[in-house]
Automatic annotation (TrEMBL), chain A:
Entry's family note: Belongs to the ABC transporter superfamily.
Keywords for the protein's UniProt record, in alphabetical order: ATP-binding, Nucleotide-binding, Transport
Protein name per UniProt: Spermidine/putrescine transport system ATP-binding protein
Keyword ATP-binding: yes
Record GO cellular component, one term: ATP-binding cassette (ABC) transporter complex
Species of origin: Mesorhizobium sangaii
Gene Ontology process terms (BP): quaternary ammonium group transport
SUPFAM superfamilies: MOP-like, P-loop containing nucleoside triphosphate hydrolases
TrEMBL record, chain B:
SUPFAM superfamilies recorded: MetI-like
ABC transmembrane type-1 domain segment(s): 72-279
Listed GO CC annotations: plasma membrane
Name used for this protein in its record: Spermidine/putrescine transport system permease protein
Protein family according to the UniProt entry: Belongs to the binding-protein-dependent transport system permease family. CysTW subfamily.
PROSITE patterns the record matches: ABC_TM1
Membrane topology classification: Multi-pass membrane protein
Cell compartment(s), UniProt: Cell membrane
Organism: Mesorhizobium sangaii
Principal location listed in the UniProt entry: membrane
Top-level taxon of origin: Bacteria
Gene Ontology BP term (one): transmembrane transport
């Protein structure tokens, strides 16, 4: 498997239901062997992308290429992809091994080989003891693993996962995330994982494709999306963030200033040429993560401003302060996240404090 | 505190009364008559009056007399055939219904069920005129050149009963099959496609097995309704189309032998209960709901 070759390419793919467009001119390349997560709020079109690739629905326009060959019109049962459905869609009248072996048995693979490969697949998903159970006799997590085994036994080029963890409780979901990731590493098959849960996306994906309103907003590694969002939507949707509106100022090397209600802020623009070339005075946001914001000390010369603590919230490993900042300490609401300490925070609600963030930890997005 | 003690006395009396009624209705109107029949089957008749002495004579007669057992078996075979033909015709119809979208599906289903609103006797008369020697069916077959002259193959005999019962009971087969087909989640069929199955494979391996409970209920419905029917054989069966229902009817009518009729009813009831149990056994989803 070569992570640099494209397995599947979507070229200006559009989809409408009747007159309602749900996908606008999507371009997307999936690399061979990667774990790609399509992330978006409900109604963003993320599940539609999966259904179009899987062949569950026809495209309205555009094309889908597999290894360079157009497969847009290939029927669902001929596509070398398998889907793990949101509610598992296990066949209730077949046992676990009947379900897992289904894809092989409809292809008339010899009985002996089916038995061997079913055993292998169930071993892989750690369900070796459950071969003769019916789906109704399994827990949610076990059904999930049967669905996965059923999808990967046909050795598909691509496994499509449609919010497969949505129905599980938090603890099980965490376990399944690690499990899916480890299986993906083991079988080296390309995974396309659809979810609305950005924590899930961050934890599992090699790359994340953020969608909104039928458009792809950004495609990149979790790190890129987190630290270099290219638009307001991604900056707000992907993780907690502080966004302060303002007008772009001058460029100084890898930094650019922005005039805001908090005064002049300086943020990094490295690797983002479109921010370097954007006109002076253009509307933009300074964005900095709650964990980048801290109490100012003598070393902080840039990005200093004062604010009043409106609320303190203990959230386990971290404590979050909600702060009102700006000229009159009412306009801008900011969040500051700091590690929790056993003897509690020294900060108290109502206190006025001086805050700062390092220029290289702030970034800009155009409004 | 919110135990049973806090419920007002009047209310508790009410709920007791309702519970008693709920049990009383089936007991009074189903179990008691059945018990009376069972009791009667051990009596006998002498010169038109019922002798209230217990004996197994009626059952002995049923099993030894050369008339009754053959008719009994023939009737069971007839009704099994009716059930089988009904299923074979109803399944494609029900399947077709589930492929329709939204409003059309239910409009057509209603249309198929409309015959249930018509009087049973009128329907039998209508079918009788279709099946007759100069009826529509014979005229059509002759007109199409399939037959040289009108056939007596389905005029006042077992075949006529078979055809009539099938026509009358088909709606009872369509409904349960349709419901079981409609209950199959579409995503299962998509999953089957996704795993590489062809349309036929998906039907044979997923749709058909998952609809079998409906088929079992349909078969037991049709069988039970057919075996209990005496009016249809009476009206279209002629002399050769003699069924168990007609014998039963004659025991209560012309022969005026209620105790023997009761014994025959018990034999019939055993078959009916067995059919319902079998239908129920296979009608369940093997505890494998998703």
């Amino acid at each position: 498997m070569n992570q640099n070759t494209d397995l599947l390419t979507l070229r200006s793919v559009s989809k409408s239901y009747g007159t309602v467009p749900v996908l606008h001119d999507i371009d997307l390349s999936i690399k061979d062997g990667e774990f790609l997560t399509v992330l978006g709020p409900s109604g963003s079109g993320k599940t539609t992308v999966l259904r179009l690739i899987g062949g569950l629905e026809p495209l309205t326009s555009g094309e889908i290429r597999l290894d360079g060959q157009d497969i847009s019109r290939m029927p669902i049962n001929r596509r070398p992809f398998n889907t793990v459905f949101q509610d598992y869609a296990l066949f209730p009248h077949l046992t676990v091994s009947g379900n897992v072996g289904y894809g092989l048995s409809v292809r008339h693979v010899p009985r002996k080989e089916i038995a061997r490969r079913v055993a292998e697949a169930l071993e892989l998903v750690q369900l070796g003891r459950f071969t003769d159970r019916f789906p109704a006799q399994l827990s949610g997590g076990q059904r999930q693993r049967v669905a996965l085994a059923r999808a990967l036994i046909c050795q598909p080029r691509l496994i499509l996962l449609d919010e497969p963890l949505a129905a599980l409780d938090l603890e099980l979901r965490r376990q399944m995330q690690e499990f899916l990731k480890s299986i993906q590493r083991e079988i080296k098959t390309t995974f396309l994982f659809v979810t609305h849960d950005q924590e899930e996306a961050i934890g599992m994906a090699d790359r994340i494709c953020v969608m909104q309103a039928g458009h792809i907003r950004q495609l990149g590694t979790p790190h890129e999306l987190y630290y270099k969002p290219n638009c307001e939507f991604v900056a707000r949707f992907f993780g907690e963030n502080n966004l302060v509106a303002g007008k772009l100022g001058s460029v100084q090397g890898e930094l650019r200033s922005i005039e805001t209600a908090l005064g002049r802020l300086v943020c990094s623009i490295s690797d983002q040429p479109h921010l370097k070339t954007a006109a002076d005075g253009a509307s933009a946001f300074a964005a900095f993560r709650p964990e980048a914001l801290h109490l100012a000390d003598a070393k902080d010369t840039d990005n200093r401003f004062s604010g009043t603590i409106a609320d303190m919230a203990f959230a386990g490993s971290s404590t979050v302060a909600t702060i009102t900042a700006g000229a009159d300490h009412t306009g801008q609401r900011l969040r500051l996240r700091m590690p929790s300490r056993v003897d509690g925070s020294t900060l108290k609600s109502g206190a006025t404090i001086s805050l700062a963030f390092a220029p290289h930890e702030g970034h800009l997005v155009l409004a | 505190m919110s135990g049973p003690g806090t419920i007002p006395l009047a209310e508790r009396r009410w709920s007791l009364l309702v519970t008693a009624l709920a049990f009383a209705l089936p007991v009074v109107f189903v179990l008691v008559p059945l018990a009376i029949f069972l009791g009667y089957s051990f009596f006998s008749v002498d010169q038109g009056t019922i002798v209230h002495t217990l004996s197994l004579g009626n059952y002995f007669r049923f099993f030894t007399d050369p008339i009754f057992l053959p008719v009994f078996w023939n009737t069971i075979v007839l009704c099994l055939s009716v059930a089988a033909i009904c299923i074979l015709l109803a399944y494609p119809a029900a399947y077709f219904l589930t492929t329709l979208k939204g409003r059309w599906r239910y409009a057509l289903l209603m249309l198929l069920l409309v015959p249930l609103l018509m009087s049973y006797v009128i329907k039998i008369y209508a079918i009788r005129s279709i099946l007759g020697l100069n009826g529509f069916l014979n005229k059509a077959l002759v007109g199409l050149g399939i037959l040289q002259e009108p056939s007596t193959l389905f005029v006042f005999n077992m075949n006529a009963i078979l055809l009539t019962l099938t026509l009358l009971l088909i709606p009872f087969a369509i409904l349960p099959i349709f419901l079981s087909l409609e209950r199959i989640p579409q995503v299962l069929l998509r999953a089957s496609d996704d795993l590489g199955a062809s349309g036929l494979q998906t039907f044979l391996r997923i749709t058909l097995p998952l609809s079998l409970p409906g088929v079992a209920s349909a078969a037991s419905f049709v069988f039970v309704l057919a075996i209990g029917d005496f009016l249809t054989p009476q009206m279209v069966g002629g002399i050769s189309g003699f069924t168990f229902g007609r014998i039963l009817y004659s025991q209560f009518g012309t022969a005026y032998n209620w105790p023997f009729g009761a014994a025959l009813s018990v034999a019939l009831a055993v078959v009916v209960i067995a059919a319902i149990l079998v239908g129920e056994r296979f009608g369940r989803n093997r505890g494998t709901a998703i």
